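By way of example, what follows is a protein record of this kind.
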Amino acid sequence: MLSSLVSDLLSIFNSASALFTIDIWSKIRKNAQAREILIVGRLFNVILLAISVLWVPLIQQVQGGQMFFYIKAIGAYLGPPIGAIFVLALFWKRCNESGAFYGLMVGLVVGLIRMGLDFTFRSPECGIPDERPAITRDVHYMYFAFILFTVTIVAAVVVSLTTPPSDVEKLVRTTFTTRFDETRRPDDFRYDRRPSRALSGVPPIEEFGCLETDDVTGSNGLKTDPLDEHEEERGSGFLLRSRTKLVDFCFGNAAPTQDEKDAHDAHLAKVSSLDQSPGAKLFLNINLGLLLILVIFVFILFSQ
């Protein structure tokens, strides 16, 4: 458990430090050197650690100081907007970037308000009348999570319908209904080595003029490839072969054969394929239904 906790904290601190230094500090100090960015990232981690220590008294005031219930309560205030936008964008093609952004902002504000009320109005002791606001007194945090989920979806739908829709080519293979769409996206040329394209006979990237190189005319009047001249400069013969074998032996940098490349591409195409056999589809759908029933049951059970 301790190693798992340390691993989680390490990933959190690294991610937070990277987000702050790249997205915020780089905007403030446009010419910051690598050493400065490293120091700022370390100092930001120290600040996060201090905030986490100062946050302990707040944990003691919420959910009776029980860590598990505190984590679930905070997750119910901040997590539902993310899940709502993900589900909405997955199943509704009309959801656009503006709808997703403002839906998240509305959900975040509503969740922070509820979290602030929990921190401000503590649960009374036994025998003392509960005079907290109704939203904290009568609405369990799990029920509030469902309300917040619904509010986020409504906000995202309203904003999406009042703003221009997303480009059609951006929806290819990004939603549930377009997951099998084989239409070529404009940005597909960036992924020329994707197995599905190599195995489906789609024209290579060179046909679109993205990787064209200019020929160079040599002294003999024949056109040569600059890359060939570069290879010649590296040397040839026994010394070059020996150096190549030594590097390959030490670093495992041997170039794969064409058969190995084809087998690897076929494997990637198979594991990334969405096609399922009837038996596998039935098995997965049954388990999906059972898991949904179990989750709803546990949700209701622990909301009492």
User: Anything to note?
Assistant: Confidence is low (pLDDT under 50) at residues 193-233. The longest helix spans residues 2-28.
